[in-house]
Amino acid sequence: MAPVSSSSEALVSLFSWICCQRKSTKSTKTPPYKFVHVLKGIDIYPENLNSKKKFGADEKTELSPKSLISKTSLHLDLEKRDLNGNFPKATKVRSSPDLEDITQPPTQENEKDSVSPESIKSSASLSSVDKQNNLGTLFFSVEYNFEKKAFVVNIKEAKSLPAMDEQSMTSDPFIKMTILPEKKHKVKTRVLRKTLDPAFDETFTFYGIPYSQVQDLVLHFVILSFDRFSRDDVIGEVYFPLSGIELSDGRLLLNREIHKRNVRKSAGRGELLISLCYQSTTNTLTVVVLKARHLPKTDISTISDPYVKVNLYHAKKRISKKKTHVKKCTPNAVFNELFVFDIPCEGLEDISVEFLVMDSERGSRNEVIGRLILGASADGTGGEHWKEICEHPRRQIAKWHMLCDG
């Protein structure tokens, strides 16, 4: 019986030792998260809770140095209390565990003193510039159809366009798109009436473009507002080079800010030689389109095929129009074409003549190379030429005029 009693005593002592060990480990185990009550309305967090290891810590984890520092700072803050146990008003503790040292924000008085009239003026000027440059955003997508060997462009929509009609404070937008540099492919969307957020959702498929050449192309979008009685208003443009764009994975959705049309295009538009003669007895105006010179290329690779459109306006309303023949592949065209217009009123005060030098393009809308206005309110040589024919009726007077951006 002695061996049985000794073995049972050994088991009892072993069981009691295991219980003592478990009790000691529980007492020394670091809790995953320690909640500290709120003292005087101040939230105190003893530890930084950013590290994820604290929620899955083992029994052998030790306190981090950050927690030790926070505990010491806690004791220091408690020592700063007065006899009544209140903290001084100057000390302010932020209730965020992640922010330890944060400078106090400036008071409202300091903010008011820091705002100067110059800063207000500069901010106002910047806001006005932003409004002028804010021409909206264009949304579109590109993809390549490998089965049909075709390049596909979807013009989805445009948002926040400016109002081009001052009376209705809206626009009639449409978009012209050209694939550069060859400029063989030109398309345009339909006109959407009275909207500043047009949703076109029109898809254009261009066949015969190898996938290897897509990287060399540039998409040129021109956003315009349709005008029934005069030339369309240009809202802005978007250039999108396809270099570096990978289309093997499928359709790519894109959006780009609309920018103001490049003003540098107006430089070097060429010159136009015009002859005018006013017959006061018959109340007619004879216009002769003689020559054009130094016309620029509208396409990088080819020379323009120019012709001239002549529009007669009375009180800013077009009452008659004519056009010359097309001259093939020349920057220095000779037209020598005469047009006679009947003037509906006596005198030329409310009459003006518009000349549009166009580039003839098959299968798409012709592009304007340059523009010229002759009339009483015209600037530069246009106004001088008009004044001369009014002072010397029945005399044919010819002058060269610089073309401006159309």
UniProtKB/TrEMBL annotation:
Topology versus the membrane: Single-pass membrane protein
Name of protein: Synaptotagmin 4
GO biological process: calcium ion-regulated exocytosis of neurotransmitter; negative regulation of secretion by cell; vesicle fusion
InterPro entries linked to this entry: C2_dom, C2_domain_sf, Synaptotagmin
Lineage: Eukaryota, Metazoa, Chordata, Craniata, Vertebrata
One CC-aspect GO term: plasma membrane
One example GO MF annotation: calcium-dependent phospholipid binding
SMART domains in the record: C2
Signal peptide (residue range): none
Pfam families, A to Z: C2
Organism superkingdom: Eukaryota
Subcellular location: Cytoplasmic vesicle membrane; Endomembrane system
Natural source organism: Leptobrachium leishanense
Biased composition regions of type Polar residues, renumbered to the chain: 116-126
Stretch list, region Disordered: 86-126
Gene: SYT4
Family, as annotated: Belongs to the synaptotagmin family.
All residue ranges annotated as the C2 domain in the record: 134-255, 268-401
Keywords of this entry: Calcium, Cytoplasmic vesicle, Membrane, Metal-binding, Phosphoprotein, Repeat, Transmembrane, Transmembrane helix
PROSITE patterns assigned: C2
